[in-house]
Every structure is written in structure tokens, then in C-alpha cells.
């Protein structure tokens, strides 16, 4: 029996490397431990062995059984590895770029900003920038906004503590720091550093104490324009905004002015757009921006002679333009980073 057990183990080990699939594995096992298997037949002979010798032979049969099961386990592990490799497919080189790498998209507000800037750059405007933290002089005083004006209330503007200091934001005097409420402060800084003629755009982020809802946000984006030269008239302003509306919204877009009041322009106007092909606008006029001729007091504050130079200024919200152009009905969508929303602008 010892020779027979040894022969069975050696045969099992010799055949194990030839097994290539589950069907072959089951047949392989059956040839040893199946009803007609060679090891099963040998176990059945245990009853023919003298009684006193059975414990010893039973021990050897159990040892042979453990060795067979070890062979079966090795074959099974190898087959599982082969099956997993077949599911995974060919080996992957981790240093190669992913074939399905997700492609990002420019944020819709950036897309609209770039469109607006592109329109004005074609007619000679350049982009100017300034700090988001400002002072009262640049944000209010130089723009002819009196101390009692509602825009300067604590309820409307984010003021910094009196002890706050910013080494990279210049002051005109001892005025307070604040988060800018519009980008008109960039116009003031530009006029203080450069001489006319000036034709600039000042896009950027602004801040006001607004409660967030479908049309309001404490953080939003503006773009403002300024043109200063000799002989600039209201008709130049109207012609510029007519051109802008047609370039942005289509050739059927129309612009109308309504009298208004802004501290830094005189005369001042609210501007309405109409574009029949845009469902968000339709035939109905919709308010889009404010504009006007630069008030002489503003020129005097920055050292420009109002008897020699005139100019116009305008300003609009990027979010408002984007909502109209894309048919978005809630400003908060622009800030939620929801890919379902952003992927529509790819």
C-alpha cells in the first residue's frame, strides 16, 4: 500500500501542471478521489488489512489525502489566477495616459467674460486689474459717492476692522479697507497712474452684503468699461453699446437707455436689451447694465481736467449676462461645482 500511495501522489503532482481549465480540473480530481478514483479504491482496501495494522495504514492514507488536497489547492489557485487575468484583459502599462481621461471645460462665467472682453478688445479696449481689497477713497470718495450714500452702509458693504493693514494695497489717506463693491475702483487707480486717452475694461470679483437667492449672491463678478478722451459724447456711448449687444446676442439685439442716477456719471442711464431669438429675453426688454458720462467731479478727484476731457463708463454683471445668454434661472448654479450643470458648457 505504501508504494501505491507514493505512486498516486507522484502521478497527481506530475499531471497538475497540465490542467488548463475547470473541466480538466474536475476530471483530474475525479481520477483520484471520485467514486472510481485510484485513491478512493485504495481507501476501500483498508478493511482487508489485519485489525492491528489498520491504525498505521489509516494514518498513512490520511497523510496521502492531505498531500492530494494540497495539489488540488495549488491547481485551483492557478486556475483562479488565469480566470481573473482573462477578465482583466492584457496587462496595462501604468505609465501610459488613460484613454478615457475626463476632459474639463471652461467655466460658463469665464466663457462669457472672455466673449465680452473679446468684443471690446476688437475696438481698442485693454484689460486693467486691481485689488479685491480696496479703500473707501478708491471705491467711494473718488467716485463722487458721499459719506451718507446707502452703498456705504455697513448693511451693504464688507468693511475690514480698523486695525487691518495691507502692505500691497495703497491708501489715499486714512480711510478704511473694504471688499470692493464694484470694479470702478480699478478705473480710479488707472486714471491716477495713466493720462488720457484711456480705453479700459476692468473685470473682476466683487462683494456685497446680499442674501443668496436665485438672483443675488454676496460674491459675484462685474466688468466695467471706461473711455476718456477729448470730445467723447453720449452718442459714442450708445453706438458702443449697440455694437456690443449685436456682437453678444445677435444682429437683432436692440438697446435702449432710460434716465437714472449714479453718483459717478452725469447724465446716467439704465440700459435694457431686447433680442427676439433668445427665449430668456424674447421681445421683452430686460435691464442689463448701468452707464453714463463720467461726472466732472470724478475727473477732478484723479487730476484730469474736465474742461479738456470727457468720457463714458459702463458696468454689467457677468452672472446676469450668462443667465440671459444660457437661459439659467438661478445664479447659485454657477458656484455649486455640480458637474451635471458645468458639463453642459463643454
Describe the structure.
The longest helix is centred in the first third of the chain and has 35 residues, at 54-88. Helix 1 (2-16) runs parallel beside helix 4 and helix 5 packs across helix 10 (318-326). It is rod-shaped and about 130 Å long. With 346 residues, the chain is an alpha+beta fold. The protein contains eleven helices and nine strands. Helix content is 38%, strand content 20%. The strands form two sheets. It has a seven-stranded mixed beta sheet with strand order 1-4-5-9-8-7-6, sandwiched between helices. Strands 2-3 form a two-stranded antiparallel ribbon. The model has no long low-confidence stretch (mean pLDDT 89). It has two domains: 2-88; 108-345, BirA Bifunctional Protein, domain 2 (2-Layer Sandwich), CATH 3.30.930.10.
Entry summary:
The protein has 346 residues and is an alpha+beta fold. The chain has eleven helices and nine strands.
How do the helices and strands line up, and which of them pair or pack?
Elements: H1 2-16, H2 22-33, H3 38-44, H4 54-88, H5 108-121, E1 126-127, E2 133-135, H6 136-139, E3 177-179, H7 184-193, E4 198-207, E5 219-229, H8 234-249, E6 254-262, E7 265-275, E8 282-294, H9 296-301, E9 310-317, H10 318-326, H11 339-342
Parallel strand pairs: 1-4
Antiparallel strand pairs: 2-3, 4-5, 5-9, 6-7, 7-8, 8-9
Helix pairs in contact: 1-4, 5-10
